[in-house]
């Protein structure tokens, strides 16, 4: 009976872990839709909590009866599995609560770079290709004041080449590189859920300087959990690294 209870609580914690760990990859592979994936997260948390509650009950029974019901290693396994199942969704929720509910980030909020070659790829995307407008811009200014237009002295052709190289280094899928217009378009697929976000880089002459603007937009989701701003920062860092080589 004791072994059965120990196995049961470990099994419940394992189910909790699998609900959380597999929900995103299953969505990425097209096995389940996004709503079902989030349901998996929710029930993973509930199951993890249930496993911890059952573990506490078993420990109390062990103390009262002075009988060996569950070992330290088994208890540690339950805590580990359940802790991960509970923590991952809560961390995502916390991150979402600390960033604005926007999914279209641009260094130029007045005249953001426009998608061209990517437009057909977003035909069925829930989020339209058009810029979200001043409401989104106002939230971005407050949340990401560092996301601004960049200025370089290098020739335009060199910057286009470096920007394309930076995008490739980051693992983005290149869609369009146009040296004449100074546009680079690419798609980045997130690792866990497999969300596709699109990026356009615009390089323009301004006197003896070059103006570089980057825009990153999610194809779906009201909030990007800060991913687009993070992507732009990462691109800028990689671009500067390429130019220094």
Spans of 5+ residues with little confidence (pLDDT < 50)? none
Largest sheet: 6 strands, antiparallel
How are helices and strands ordered from N to C?
Answer: HHHEHEHEEEEH
Helix content: 40-55%
Number of strands: 6
* Separation of the first and last Cα atoms: 66 Å
Separate helix tally: 6
Strand content: 15-25%
Our Rg estimate from Cα atoms comes to: 24 Å
**SS class:** alpha+beta
What is the residue-averaged pLDDT? 94
Shape estimate: elongated
Model description:
With 245 residues, the chain is an alpha+beta fold. It contains six helices and six strands, in the order αααβαβαββββα. The chain has helices at 2-28, 34-65, 72-97, 134-143, 156-169, 227-244; strands spanning 104-106, 150-152, 173-178, 183-189, 196-206, 209-218. Strands 1, 2, 3, 4, 5 and 6 form a six-stranded antiparallel sheet that branches. Strand 3 (173-178) and strand 4 (183-189) form a beta hairpin. Helix 2 (34-65) runs antiparallel to helix 3 (72-97). The longest helix is centred in the N-terminal third of the chain and has 32 residues, at 34-65. The radius of gyration is 24 Å and the shape is elongated. 33% of the residues are buried. The mean pLDDT is 94.
């Amino acid at each position: 009976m004791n072994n059965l209870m120990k196995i049961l609580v470990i099994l419940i914690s394992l189910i909790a872990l699998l609900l959380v760990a597999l929900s995103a990859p299953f969505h990425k592979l097209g096995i389940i839709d996004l709503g079902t994936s989030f349901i998996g997260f929710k029930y993973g948390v509930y199951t993890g909590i249930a496993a911890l509650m059952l573990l506490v009950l078993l420990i109390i029974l062990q103390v009262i009866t002075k009988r060996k019901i569950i070992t330290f290693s088994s208890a540690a396994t339950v805590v580990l599995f359940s802790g991960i199942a509970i923590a991952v969704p809560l961390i995502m929720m916390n991150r979402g609560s600390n960033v604005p509910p926007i999914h279209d980030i641009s260094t130029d909020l007045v005249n953001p770079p426009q998608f061209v070659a990517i437009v057909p790829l977003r035909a069925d995307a829930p989020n339209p290709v058009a810029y979200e407008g001043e409401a989104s811009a106002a939230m971005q200014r407050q949340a990401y004041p560092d996301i601004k237009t960049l200025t370089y002295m290098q020739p335009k052709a060199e910057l286009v080449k470096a920007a394309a190289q930076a995008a490739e280094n980051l693992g983005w899928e290149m869609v369009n590189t146009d040296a004449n217009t100074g546009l680079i378009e690419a798609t980045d697929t997130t690792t866990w859920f497999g969300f596709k976000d699109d990026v356009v880089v615009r390089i323009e002459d301004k006197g003896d300087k070059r103006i570089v603007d980057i825009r990153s937009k999610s194809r779906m989701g009201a909030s990007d959990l800060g991913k687009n701003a993070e992507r732009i920062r990462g691109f800028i860092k990689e671009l500067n690294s390429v130019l220094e080589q």
